[in-house]
Amino acid sequence: MKTLIPFLLLAIVFSCAETPKNETTHPETEATEVSLQDYHSFENKDDQFTGGIKLIPIETPKGTFNVWTKRIGNNPKMKVLLLHGGPGMTHEIYESFDGYFPQEGIEYIYYDQLGSHYSDQPKDLSLWDLDRFVEEVEQVRVALDLDKDNFYLFGQSWGGILGMQYALKYQDNLKGLIISNMVSSIPEYQKYSDEVLAPQLPKDVLDEIMTYEEKEDYSNPRYLELIVNNYYVKHVIRMPVDEWPNSINRGFNHLNPDVYVTMQGPSEFGIKGDATLKNWDVQDRLKEIKVPTLTIGAQYDTMDPKHMEWMASEVQNGRYLHCPNGSHLSQYDDQEHFFPGLIDFIKDVDAGEMN
């Protein structure tokens, strides 16, 4: 089974291609803007000693464990908790945010979910359950003093599943929700993978990949080579493998295969076998989400961008951001559209322009 390649890799229509970078201003938010000195200051903060790092105890049916978080910046009205993909990946895939959020005064929190590299990694597979992860996020929120006046939840890929599920139970605690590169139905994801993405591969490549899939020989080095060089560079991160950012490579190396395979399964062409997320589908419940919501899709994503656009029209207060040059990791391969659109959404919600 392939243990180092994750799923991460698993209405108002708004095209980010139409928004020039740094052009939009938000005079209404001047009262909540913070100086650079205040933004970067740790004075009178209980995490000054650790440089923003907090280990948060999480109560589970199997005992108490610690999860790792790290706060970047201070802003009383804009705090973004980042939910990584995988499942079992790490916060490292979001290190590109360091290049864009600080100068906008947006506070953000790195977070390794339970089982991920910087947090505790218990071996009980029963912990890798969607509903338990939802309760974990809620405990993290409480520990970090996040609330409806400042709490933005960003989830990408598996993190998007977790973000949607959290919002369906706890949206009254949210100020804004961002669902990045994730559709609202695993069966729809599987259909898109089978009927749209797989046939785009050269026939000889697809045939060879399928021989390994049929034998469930997912750990075969040749299978991994074919997937990375023919699928990932087109639909996960559109860069030559030798140019992948160090943060992405570290994230892959730190992936927890127990979490990943239990929930996502071993295949790179959808979710198969007895993976616990195989039948997850909340398409019919999106209309319950009333909090301002941004969905982010990308032209070359493993997820259908049309479905992402549709999701923005299903929630009660949605906006869609399209990344025309991006794939599953648009925060790296389409930064010129991803970050301006994301920042505009956060500031528009703060200014009351999404109400």
TrEMBL record:
Keywords: Hydrolase, Signal. Residues 80-334 form the AB hydrolase-1 domain. It comes from the Bacteria. One of its GO terms (molecular function) is hydrolase activity. Residues 1-17 form the signal peptide. SUPFAM superfamilies: alpha/beta-Hydrolases (SSF53474). Belongs to the peptidase S33 family. PANTHER family: MONOACYLGLYCEROL LIPASE (PTHR43798). This is Proline iminopeptidase-family hydrolase. It comes from Winogradskyella maritima. The lineage of its organism: Bacteria, Pseudomonadati, Bacteroidota, Flavobacteriia, Flavobacteriales.
